[in-house]
Amino acid sequence: MRYSRSNIIAHSRPTLGQKEIDAVSKVIQSSMIAQGNMVERFEKDFIEKMGGGYAACTSSGTAALHLTLLAMSIQSGDDVIMPSFICSALLNAVNYTGANPVPVDINPLTYNIDPEEVKKHVNKKTRAIIVPHLFGAAADMDDLLALNVPVIEDCAQSIGGTYKKKYLGTLGHAAIFSFYATKVMTTGEGGMVFSFSKAFIDRIKKLREYDNRKKYEIRYNYKMTDIQAAMGKVQLSQLDDFISKRKMIADEYNLSFKKLGIRIPKQKKDHIYFRYVVGTDFACSKMIEQIQGHGIMCEKPVHTPIHRLLDLDGFSETEKAWKQTISIPIYPSLTEKETDRIIRDFKKTCNLTGLNRNERSNQ
Hints:
Radius of gyration: 21 Å
CATH class of the largest domain: Alpha Beta
Helix content: 40-55%
Shape: globular
């Protein structure tokens, strides 16, 4: 059966409504559409959500990470550790500074960066560890912080998540957030840097604005607009509801998929399920194609691991995760009908034993 665009279930989709339309329209009507008062109000709301601290809006999550590295004086000759199983945005930000990106392998149970692998790569040149809380599940922060290397929390996929009852983003030296269209909450494009250090965020704000300065230094046009911030304020006010809906859908998936012979996400109260990622024991690219043939846009959760982009060997757990995981649609705007269809068609595909044998033969 061929599916029209209207019948295709997207892998990701923002949850937007009249409140966002009204907020953005009000800013446009004011004619004050660049960075201004609304950005400051969004930063204030964000700080209140995090329980204190300081925050600076940026034009993207990548910009947030770039500025964070610069504010930490990271430069050529420094090492920055990151997981290999992540998007290339982290690699780009580190390369912008001239520092040396050091990818490491992951924990196969959580897909997060493995503290034991990090420990093997820490040396006198190591200036920071970038720690994504991948797919909405917290990384092992206790073991990572114990290494006594500054930790930058990457909360692009985990805003609103917690670790031992503390918000993700409040545990490391600094944290960065992304509000891209497909993230947990969105401003279209956009990001945020968060820290409990006022001096650090002041430095971020000086770097993000290039004009009207008495003393010249290289700065960046990394500002957020009031249009984006207006949307962000509305989205932030709905964040708890977004997460609740994600968890509700995940509960349905967990119940429906537990007898399929696949690895479902580890069920933890602090998991916000930005992605619902299942593991198999075979290369699953053909299975993804089969599900997409049903009009359900399942995907690889990471397009290309960092070590492959850098032509590095090893990384056995990252390689396995990259070849043997599938990301299933999960977002608040999924309807009950769409969720039922995903469950039905995914189970049907998993039960095609002929497909499974074929997949296993091509590991």
